[in-house]
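Homework help thread (please don't just give me the answer)

Our assignment gives two proteins as sequence + structure token strings and asks us to describe the second one. The first is just a warm-up. Here they are:
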Amino acid sequence: MTIQKTSKHIVSKKRANTLQLTATALSSAMLLASAGALAADEAQDTKKLNTVKVETDAVAADYKAEKASSPKFTQPLVDTPQTLVVVKKELFQQQAATTLSDALRNTPGITMLMGENGNTATGDSIFMRGFDTQGSIYVDGIRDLGSISRDTFNTEQVEIAKGPAGVDNGRGAASGYVNLSSKLANQEDATIGTLTAGTADYKRATIDVNRALGESSAVRVNVMKQDAGVDGRDEVENNLQGFAGSLAFGLGSETRTYINYLSMEQSGIPDGGVPTVGLDGWYSSVYAAAFPNGPKVKPVDSENFYGSTSDHNDVNANMTTVRIEHDLAEGVTLRNTSRYGHTKQEQVLTGVNAVVIPKATAADTASWQVARTRQGKDQSNQILTNQTNLTASFDAGGVKHDVTSGVEFIYESQLNYTMAVPFVSPTSSTAVTQVAANLYQPNASDVFQPVVRTGAKTDGETTTYGFYALDTITLNPQWEVSVGLRADRFNTKTDTITRQAAVTAPAVQIIPVGTLLGREAHVTDELLSWKIGGVYKPVEKGSIYISYATSELPPGGSNFALNTDPTTQAAGSNINNPNLDPQKGTNYELGTKWNLLNDSLFFTAAAFKSTNENEIATNPDGTSTAVGEKQVEGVEFALIGAVTKAWQINAGIAFMDTEIVRGNRTAANNGAANNEGGVIQWSPEVTFTLWNTYTFGNGLVIGGGARYIDNMMSSSLTSEQAQATRSVLEFGDYWVFDVMASYPVTKNVTLQLNVLNLADEEYIGSLNNSGARYYPAQPLSARLGVNFAF
């Protein structure tokens, strides 16, 4: 390693036990299915309206996938020794789900975060199996940079690989990764679209046109436009437009070429959140001192908007991908993929912070205020990559080998300009204070401070050269062994410019002034990841497997921002310190997978133990070292596919036990563990998801589902004193129920109605780290759509 430096009321429901959860889940599924089954005779049960199925995704959908899209997975899902979940477009389109976050609700073990300082307020902030996975999102096997919200209008299926997957992608989180597989041009002529309207002024239109240009070429154009408010929130807007084009040559021949282009634009008024005041578990030391015996403070209206109508979130993302495939021989295919992608995000967000309680009028809650800060984000991300993959299937030494190997060259960069309101004076690093809002009656017409570039910035880049090889060895019809290895050499470089205060303040300050100080740091190192698995097939349709996998995440591996401050480098108090070793993830897994009912239904079960080492921990003397360790143990079950020809189901449940095995020990608490032994935040013990539909003989589809999230902690701290300093430490469990119905009015046109959060459950959708603010979850809402297909 080389280092170079220069200069409404949300309540917490009583927790259900495992038996109650399982019974409720199974009974809801059986009741919904039996209601449909009793209404249709056997003749109707055998009708699938095949024409309608081809032409519109709203009827007779098929949830079960056979394989992942990546050539790095050579075996069908039933023979892959890893928890690998595939969510097909037919499923999330039935749910009126349009974002990646919506699609991920179809697998357990995933929660969403709110984030800090607006950094993840508009993005897919994913916590999976106890670990942050935001930096491990891919599109067609290539990392997708930026904390943005991804739309699924051009997505064929979403694939979730759980557990460390360094062999698949190189550096990454201990939890695994998420991959969006894009729609491609094909030789079937089709025109498919939707027109949808709903509550909160929701309007969305999509059209997907595919045309064969000849015997071996085709073109596909996919367009989306959305103008929408956000259910349950005043002022907030989420507007989108997207274009995707795919051009294919050589289809059906030995050499196939795909040229794909994607452009996405996002605009609107972002959401800075709502104060957690008055929610169950809310705590304020000021209030507790003034009112040791109450009274209880009422929550604020969850529709309140505390920002400015001038707040904005503008995203522009473009990517061009060229993929060439050539069959060298029977069972041998060479693929080369090149991509250039660029994402630009400009955002101004007003976030709420601590509650301000005037001492003189503390008893009058109408005088209470909430502090606000204006935050800016000006970020650009780039990626340039070329990947070459060779897959080969052959017999050698009396055994079958399915080999996939390749090399990857990747350049990634991220440029962040520091945005802030002007300073109190150029000799101070203190920004002008934004006027506080009335807690219960905020006014979007208040005077808001401008947010400008300060002159400071962080410019980071990572260059990676990687090689990988995986081999699945079929010893006989009952036994398979898979091994994989990946080696990466990377170089991460970060240049920062910070502003020092000016010695003499000018009479009038218009923009930040002072001396700009530049620093640089870089790190060059190697990463080595591997995995091994064994599969036993007692019968052709089922498997029992065991596997072990690793991953590594070096400093700056998530955000390209190495710590360039020599003082904090010496203290080792930042995980992006270039002096530190990479975080190391490992995963043991024992599971079983079965194709049931003539391969129409897929059942999986897995027990796992995931560990992440080399996280920052604070020693009793105040120094910090990368010796922290987090551990997650759990079991997960899933059932996906068709129970009958009319009844489709997607269900999953996960149980997790999380722990900080080695954590912070500070001198302030005499070396006692501050979070050691605590649970991992944002990681509920139980998560459950269910969606199922029944298709009647006349094409009517009735469906519905349920989701359950157990209690979650917003902190891993174990000290009672430390817990008492947080606004909300724990937020309660909840159930959410959704229903849908669709009916083909003609063979080409289908009406679809979705009712979301049928019981109008009030709960915290996501919470920030301090517990001071939250996003209210989507209340009772509806979408009515017209699906057409020709």
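The one we have to describe:
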Amino acid sequence: MLNTREWSLLNELFHQACELPIAERDAFAREQAGDQPELLEELLRMLQVEADATDAVRAPLRDLGSRIPEELPEPEPGTRFGPWQVDRLLGKGGMGQVYLGHRADGAYTRQVAIKLIGSKSHDARQQAHFERERQLLARMQHPAIAQIHDAGSDEHGRHYLVMEYVEGLPLTQWCNQHHLGLRARLRLLLRIAEGVQHAHQKGVVHRDLKPGNILISQVDGVPIPRIIDFGIAARTDADAASAGTPDAGGTPGYMSPEQTIAGMDVDSRSDVYSLGAILFELVSGKRPRGSGSTGEATRTSEPLRPSDQIATLSAEEIAQLTQTLKLPPQRLRRVLRDDLDWIVARATQPDREQRYPSVASFADDLNRWLDGWPVQAAPQRRLWTLRKFVVRHRLPVAAAALLLLSVFAGLIATTWALHRAEQAVLREQAINHFLNDVLTSVDPVVAFDLDQTLMRRVLDRASERIKTELAAHPEARSRLEITLSNIYSNLGDAERALVHLESARDVANTHLGAASEPALLAQMELAHHHGSRGRLADAEQLLRTHLPAAHRIRQQNPVLHPQMESQLGWVVRQQGGRAEEARQLLENSYRTLLERVGPEHIRTIDAGHFHSTALSESGRMEEAIALLTQLTATQSRVRGEDHPQTLALRNSLAGFHSLNDDPHSAEAEFRTMIDVVSRQHGSGNRMLPVLHVNLAYTLHRMGGSARMQEAGQLYDSAVQAQQALQGADHPLTSQMREMRAQWLLDDGQAEPARDELQAVLAATLHAFGENHPAITNILALLARSELALGNTGGAREHAQAALARLMEGTPEHDRIQREMQDILSTTAAP
């Protein structure tokens, strides 16, 4: 019978042996444990079980290989795969070999990893499968995923993938060497989970997630994870089952139980299991034991629980783990048992139907744990929930505890705390129940690539239910009304968006007070709605009225006041005449957010974006470009290069380069972004018309026959797509039509330009009234078009109207003023 120390040694030797090829494991076991017969016998037995499981998983691949007649020699240094050249072997595995290489023609200077998928020729079916897989892998562009640069086949039929070469340490090794504490480990795992979720959204499951396939490097003191080895990845959709996809295995201990069953389909929940197993190791210090190899083992096995593993550790191992995780020994098991046990257990449920349904929901529970909220995986227990309340509010609760010296005051404080905890729990349960019911009301198969018809059906149902089902929870209702408003706004339905905003404001004012956080959020969103529809004075009045109240709750919500201030600065800027006031508001809000929530917060990046625009318009273009470059890099690192906000930043940065006499850089960036968005999101993405019109404007300004012709085609496609997406009355549609009319005028097509401008003017007046700032430029262009057509009376009329509306301090003020005065001078009576 092995004692505790021997069981610990057995576990370590087993995992060390699993890193070796199967043929070398027996000798290793006898060398390490030959003087302890009982330990050796148990180790050999465990290794045999593990080998049998691996054999069951990889048998289909061997059978496939046995049908391929030709075995090719291992490539030597200098061997070429397309433009890539092999330098040296990095490692071998069951799915192929990986080589260090470089671009032979010098077009790419960094080293790359070249992975050969097997070493034999492939039939037509396997070739088609590889082509599908390489296209799927190329979709992924995320800072936590090692980028795929190229893929192909050589003259011998060998398939290869060319990937970003990552220099770093495996996840657990890096965490241990850098003495990462518990919370820092979870934050790092969250960034990894974001990368995995990105892959799932692109239709790819990794299927071999483990610490060795997650390499950590350090950039400016910040750990940067890179997920590697998607070579055995598979599609997440049903097509994979019918596409002849070869089975692929994982690594015992990290792979899901269903991966050990021959012929069983594998979906994204397999990666959820692997992330749960990685979390188990990060918090317990021990690798998880291998999964069972049969269906019966899968049904009877148990999920992982870190606290169970802690119970088997020796006193020395406990001391080392508590030092690593930076937790006192007496708190270690309690911290794990409170919530992390539940998170790991749910992620590693043998029955995948009981796991988290997605990596996003797994990550959400990690975020909840880090923020001190009850996790979804845990059973709802009142005392346990109250304890989470205490953790989140250590200082107030500590103050209340001091007041217990006075019994009466202590009772009041305790009662108040209990009441607030109960209210928080009730509110949270109401929100969770409501959202869960709404989201699950749509079949996931039907909702894939959801169109607006089905989306509106779900939203309309939610709009009706929210009035009754959240009637007793005004804060939850108010916040969800704002969410629904934003969704309707994104769908182009401004009227429904306004209805929900007004409802959110009224509910919050009535039940929570006009100075409450939900009421102020609703007022800010109403101001944004007014501003986007051209009612700038109304927007400014709302923001100025509620800024003081937002400042008073800065401890409760440190973001709201500077966010309002940034929005106010933008509204002031659009009205013209107060450029310096607008610039100061925008700069102050950005600096405040930097100080309060840091450079990576989404509101900080928004405010910085506005501030950079104000800098560019005040003639400080170099500062604007430097700031926007920094913001774009931060956003790309935190949320990925294809995140909508990142694309917006890149779009603005390219525009800055265009205006800063660097149109060639702008053109290249716009074309790159168009290619990325088209490939990843399809032709229906609402970012594409914006990119098309900005590329058109850049080519338009550069001039030349070929560029002008392409610009005209891009203007046409952008306007048509924008009208289809958001309607003819949308502000962006009118702006694009105005830009196209200016191109028509510069291209010598004065009559079509005038007709288009008249239509844009009528639409703008109808949608926004006479005070919208865009009307000034439309009138100025109409004056130019009438002059080109020889209609001097019409030209003078429009020029005088434009001058009468011109506001000092706007970016276009001086240019339009000069043009209109020239027109008046030209058309003056002799």
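TA reply:
I won't write it for you, but here's a hint about the kind of observation we're looking for: The mean pLDDT is 77.
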